Amino acid sequence: MSAIPLLHDHLWAAAASTPDKIALVCGDHRVSYRDLASRATAFAATLVELGVTRGDRVVVFGDNTVETVVAFWGTLAANAVVSIVNPLTKTDKLAYLLNDCRARVLVSDAHLQRVFAPALAQTPHVAAVIASGEVGELPIRHVRWRDATAATGGLPRRACIDIDLASIIYTSGSTGEPKGVMLTHRNMLTACASISEYLRIASDEVILGVLPLAFDYGLYQMIMAFAAGARLVLERSFAFPPQVLKKVVDEKVTGFPGVPTIFAVLAGMTTLGQYDFSALRYVTNTAAALPVKHITMLRTLFPAARIYSMYGLTECKRCTYLPPEDIDRKPESVGIAIPNTELWLVDEQDQRLGPNQVGQLVIRGATVMKGYWEKPEATAKKLRPGPLPGEQVLYTGDLCRLDDEGYLYFVGRMDDIIKSRGEKVAPKEVEAAIVNIAGVREAAVIGIPDELLGQAVKAFVVLDPGVTLDAKAIQHGCQATLENFMVPKVIEIVSELPRTTTGKIKKTGLS
């Protein structure tokens, strides 16, 4: 093994030191580090036999399964670039992604053939498909999964260095054409090390993975688990909460990564008292700060666990985290810069701002992406010259403020800001106020055209089961915490909110 590590070295190092330890629990499968590394080695050899060379792209179109995990690590070991695509992706979008990155090989499953087969007809680049299950006739070479993981010959010759691409992670495309975020081995190794440091990830962790591996937050749960030689408990989703929570108890899960949607579901459950969560050590959330009522709920549900509010974006993985000891005194903050990262705010003239001023967040560090795949104009908007000659830093497009102690507060996306009555309204601030009203489960806020106001604030609100609230009651609740111009003029009670394939609220589906 080279003295300079690559991302996939984590798996083989764990297999060498603790070969019989269970690395992955997925459904009824319990896979040891030795077995996982063996399958990934065989998969890498198969890719080489199919003509995959250094830097070629391999798209893994699959669920949270053992096969997806093996394909991820095996692709890296073949010196190739891996891109996991959410299995909910439709045919036309899959075809776009395959063409965009000019994928050499597609990895998938028989139950997704109805989606990927017509996509293959729209791309000339894919030379072979590796698929599990009974796949029907395909117009290109098809390798059965059992054959792909039975190859012999050992690991392919190492050809990459740490500045080579490891992965392309496509943004959800909720506001436009998907962009492929290019991440090098160094980017991903640095992010893994930094996050693992402040979360205090240990080798005896049992980490829950319910978020899609196609989503960087879900993917890094696997990476951090294997980097520590820990165990990953992988579930396809959180669609059946009692089933997942039983697995949390049975496997003695210590790390619970969630998103606001999951915590909203937990808040609405009445049977949580029957579960023993005493093994849990930490709970994480990313995006905006957790609503105070969710913090209270998590404290009650997981009394021994450290609770982390975090903020980040795919282009640099993670920006900040709020140390658990600060959550009571700064519950609305997303915290401080992660280890080995620097941040600051700038105004529209690119001048640095001081405390309590709102400006665009800039991130400097080794986690910052290489750019967007073959999109130089979009890349130039995000990556700009930094303080040192020749370096580039990330202009996030997010509006934030820093307090006097240097703690960050997320205000909103620059392209989401609503201009009403001549004032700027951050949807996240309004959403947080609404969610903290008793009986509200979720909220999404947008601006709608208004002849008098320019834009009026409109809120879509999902209530907890059995709760009855009308628009006037919600407006009254908002008036207690928001300035008048921020209180929604229009409130629509809905049963659910539209979402992207990664579970984020899709505001382009609201009007």
Walkthrough of the structure:
α4 crosses α5 (113-120). Helices cover 28% and strands 27% of the residues. It has 3 domains: 9-184, Rossmann fold (3-Layer(aba) Sandwich); 238-338 and 364-373, Rossmann fold, CATH 3.40.50; 417-509, ANL, C-terminal domain (GMP Synthetase, Chain A, domain 3, 2-Layer Sandwich), CATH 3.30.300. The model has no long low-confidence stretch (mean pLDDT 92). It has 511 residues and is α/β, with parallel strands linked by helices. Strands 4-3-5-6-7 form a 5-stranded parallel β-sheet, with helices on both faces. Strands 12-13-14-15-16 form a 5-stranded mixed β-sheet, sandwiched between helices. β5 (105-109), α5 and β6 (128-132) form a beta-alpha-beta unit. The protein has 14 helices and 27 strands. The N and C termini lie far apart (55 Å).
Indicate the topology:
Layout: H1 9-17, E1 22-26, E2 29-32, H2 33-49, E3 57-61, H3 66-77, E4 81-85, H4 91-101, E5 105-109, H5 113-120, E6 128-132, E7 141-144, H6 145-148, E8 165-170, E9 180-184, H7 185-199, E10 206-209, H8 216-227, E11 231-234, H9 241-250, E12 255-258, H10 260-267, E13 282-285, H11 292-301, E14 306-311, E15 320-322, E16 336-337, E17 341-346, E18 358-365, E19 371-372, H12 376-382, E20 383-385, E21 392-402, E22 408-413, E23 418-420, E24 423-425, H13 427-435, E25 440-450, E26 454-463, H14 471-479, E27 490-493
Parallel strand pairs: 1-11, 3-4, 3-5, 5-6, 6-7, 10-11, 12-13, 13-14, 26-27
Antiparallel strand pairs: 1-2, 8-9, 9-19, 14-15, 15-16, 17-18, 18-21, 20-21, 21-22, 23-24, 25-26
Helix pairs in contact: 1-2, 2-3, 4-5, 7-8
